[in-house]
Predict the structure.
Amino acid sequence: MYTAAVLGASGYAGGELIRFLDNHIGFEVVFLGANTSAGKTLSSVHPQLSGGERILRTFDPDKVGSADVVFMALPHGASAEPAMAILGSGSKIVDLGSDFRLDTAQRYLDAYGVDHPFPEQLGSWAYGIPELFGEEIASSDRVAAPGCYPTSVVVPLAPLLTDGLIEPDGIIADSMTGASGAGRSSSEALRFGVIDESVAAYKVLEHRHRPEMERVLDTFVDSDVSVLFTPHLVPMQRGILSTVYATPTPGTTLHDVETAFDSVYEASVFVRRVVEPPHTRWVVGSNNLLASFHLDTRTNTLVIVSAIDNLVKGAAGQAVQCANLMFGFEESTGLPAEGWMP
Amino acid sequence: MYTAAVLGASGYAGGELIRFLDNHIGFEVVFLGANTSAGKTLSSVHPQLSGGERILRTFDPDKVGSADVVFMALPHGASAEPAMAILGSGSKIVDLGSDFRLDTAQRYLDAYGVDHPFPEQLGSWAYGIPELFGEEIASSDRVAAPGCYPTSVVVPLAPLLTDGLIEPDGIIADSMTGASGAGRSSSEALRFGVIDESVAAYKVLEHRHRPEMERVLDTFVDSDVSVLFTPHLVPMQRGILSTVYATPTPGTTLHDVETAFDSVYEASVFVRRVVEPPHTRWVVGSNNLLASFHLDTRTNTLVIVSAIDNLVKGAAGQAVQCANLMFGFEESTGLPAEGWMP
Amino acid sequence: MYTAAVLGASGYAGGELIRFLDNHIGFEVVFLGANTSAGKTLSSVHPQLSGGERILRTFDPDKVGSADVVFMALPHGASAEPAMAILGSGSKIVDLGSDFRLDTAQRYLDAYGVDHPFPEQLGSWAYGIPELFGEEIASSDRVAAPGCYPTSVVVPLAPLLTDGLIEPDGIIADSMTGASGAGRSSSEALRFGVIDESVAAYKVLEHRHRPEMERVLDTFVDSDVSVLFTPHLVPMQRGILSTVYATPTPGTTLHDVETAFDSVYEASVFVRRVVEPPHTRWVVGSNNLLASFHLDTRTNTLVIVSAIDNLVKGAAGQAVQCANLMFGFEESTGLPAEGWMP
Amino acid sequence: MYTAAVLGASGYAGGELIRFLDNHIGFEVVFLGANTSAGKTLSSVHPQLSGGERILRTFDPDKVGSADVVFMALPHGASAEPAMAILGSGSKIVDLGSDFRLDTAQRYLDAYGVDHPFPEQLGSWAYGIPELFGEEIASSDRVAAPGCYPTSVVVPLAPLLTDGLIEPDGIIADSMTGASGAGRSSSEALRFGVIDESVAAYKVLEHRHRPEMERVLDTFVDSDVSVLFTPHLVPMQRGILSTVYATPTPGTTLHDVETAFDSVYEASVFVRRVVEPPHTRWVVGSNNLLASFHLDTRTNTLVIVSAIDNLVKGAAGQAVQCANLMFGFEESTGLPAEGWMP
């Protein structure tokens, strides 16, 4: 039994981490970290969890650093400091935030508009999609778990870029997310009166997951990948649906595309191709990713539709999947391969 | 490993049964029964489940009767025939339908307006609330799992009636259910356009769960219990919230009420008292029941608010909980004590 | 054309007031008041309205007091000061808040826990249900528009109390509201993640609309009326459904009840009896109130189900209906008698 | 006062037509047509409307043909027969269906897979976007009101194609609709359990509104327009959001784009440009269309986001807007320029 600390325990991803780890045969949660909720009981922030009498605590590098693994589910920019404070303690780290996902100081500056506080770290963290980077993850003690949108876009595109089946530029990713993707704060934008019965695009041309997608997709092809990314907020709690448009290279058939995808993921428990465009309901609650492929010969465009649960495969589930590899467990240990319906 | 058959596999309760049993250490699903969906793959009706290549089959008494346990998640009135066909085969039965919940032919006639086809069976089935009837369930080979509404109403009221803390008549149960409580048919009443952004009462004074509540509550007190029950349909998938009004007997204090409840359920993994009125979100996805108690001395009325997931504690979860007792497993084996949020 | 000021223009009720008044043949909006939104354009707070270039302004007693009518859609406790500042200016006032709804200083103290700042005003404001208090409203220059819950409960009960068909005590009002009933603030309780796909009771035994119901119902019967009121929040934007339980007096038949209701409201454009329990969808968007009646002879209980749009008949629509009477217009002028579907 | 017949009165668009016409100063509804609901009262299918005692009737060419205007809100393929039966009677027709929207028999065959029954009619019907084809509509007695998706896509694109600011090919329209866009039938696809809390793409590469978009856009530019269209179903009742991607021609600036749009629609009551991407909530309930424009110089792509209410500007509202022109009323007569919030 390995010991685990969860930082950011009061958020949605933190709650899912605790739920998965509490039911995991290999990990025991020994530290629940929080900021404004420090001192509260777990049940006061997560009434749905058992063991609700546990107390949330402020970050303590000694206590956290003595855990075998530290999961960080903190807001953007908040992971770097505590991560550096425990590096060297022997703890392995899975960071669900965006601080260590990019590969260069320049890319970070472009994406976030500020200098990275520890630029020498960039590029040394494994990028946590186990189906694509399993070996790096297994041998690393520092994993940057991907963003929810990038997971939904990178998984179906990677095999196609590797095999040269689509052009690396001109990719358009048009995505929808449920409201939990925006976190758990009491902002005007997250009011029921604003979200329910309405849809909207947001951060058009400006969302920070776009550079992340490009940085990861770049690793599968020689030339630079360019993506135009438009996220939308839709009135539901969980789920991401990404509809991706790419230009097939000359001669590419739908069969080529499907074969490339299938051959990369045939051994995967969680990633699966479907013929009909997937509904997010089919994956919500599970660590699954479903994708369908559609070739429009009329306009020479490949349309890909992929679906995940943003809090599971897009966050807490994938983080535990990484930890499984880092500690020698079966990749799917303690993770749901079955969703909820309805 | 005991073998299990699931009849009514294509419905919502059937899907949850399969999900729980597939992940259970003690049961292996060997037969999936369906009517109109017979011949289809599991994935075509439950795309959220794994093992989707399994085929649904029409009822076959020999095959079903050779399973160690048969779960029946069939529409009202459809359980009696197949149940009788396999009684004597050695299979134990957990019926999630209403056919064997009432205790007398007269009560059945009053509730359903037709004669029961096998009246001699009535009264010989254990009523499947493990926290209240655990011994009968453990020693029985035939269990009638309760309706969702009765579960939410009977669990908090039973200890109060036993201890004489409330009057047995004048009870009002005002309940709300998510749409999954009405099943999975494509009726006008279940259209998104009808349910979304609207609430309504239905079957006012006529819902068949009212006689069931009275029949079960009668077992805890000498005189007849009378309940007025008003169900409402609210725009959500899962969850039941029951707000129950009862008249305290002279001298009853809130402390008496809470103590009576706590002492009956103190050993329960799933039933728990809360101080603030519970949200259904706190229990959805779990086999939990939460209840709060509020005494209005001004009008001499006790107000009880209870919350369950209608498909878990109100159906499939409780059915598996019964089966656990019938086969000697720990009561909570394979059942979620933690819900989903959001 | 009479001039109108709207205080609290940035809220939901304020927005509906502006929409109704902008399309009214008899009123012209000349002042839009706001606190934290003062200085902003109307379109920045109500992008759904036309004339969005109008500017919200802080309260100015001279400017507001020069309007023929002032609508106040302010938070609880915030109406009294501005109302007193303009009384005597010649403006008529319709207050959508709760400050002047109760009739005595003692009742106000009991309900709100503080002394009323201008107790001499209490009892001198007309209570704004036009179908019941039309003459007082027409002849008054100060109208306290009712709360949303009281409207839904008082309208169906009043004729029954007047005719002695139900007992004045032991009334239970079990109500559900959409989230707009809780206003437009960015509180944790109003997050999409909290409200969507969940229901809960709130302010059990403590909601301030209960004393208001009793105070108004008292006017229809000699003895004191007592109500137990339980409000619930359900995942929708608009609509209130109240399920009310009352004890029929000896000899009361369902026909008596329906006749009493029909005879009071036969001339009403907006209040109507239905046979089937109404869905809130049938009234949302309109100024209508629908009610159905169901007599349970088994438990001697009358069940009433009533539905309104909390922002229209429960707030802005009823306020304009009052103003119509105060200024000699037809009661239904400028008000929707047709709802939205879906 | 002109007389009006509404065919398809029991559907959602039919209900909105009746609501608008009942409150219109120039039209009086004299015939309500229905098929399976013939013989029922209006209130039984539209409980939200007043005048609910009116009876729905089967199609009668003499009675319908004696109305000054006939609105047809029928399923695809069902308009042609009744339209031909009343042509020549003197009635003007506004068809909300798709039967007469395309311009050639070949295009119809390509889109619908069957021959048009009256191919000689194709091309002789005005296409009913008043802001673009106002003169043809005003002088025509036969108007084909546009589909909901095409309205949202054509309105923002037309001025850009006219001015040569975007390439006519390579356009991608990625749209979301609320469930009312799929009509009012009790199909599995429209169950609450399927739509609520889930999103999905449907009819990928196959939706019939794509040929309609191309046919209309072709009229604004010399070369052929090609569109790739992906519709999505999202869990809400009303509203369409279209996110459109187009390639700017060399030298095109965002200012050029916005100026072209503004100059075409500056006199419009309903079509308006916004800076921030619009939420569908801002237009629901109104006949408005809002659009925002965003130029990505990095990938040389113009992103357009447009929002309408599919049942108003996308159906019944636009149909009445056309009739206003056909009968010499002000274009906006009887139509809401203000939406609902929330």
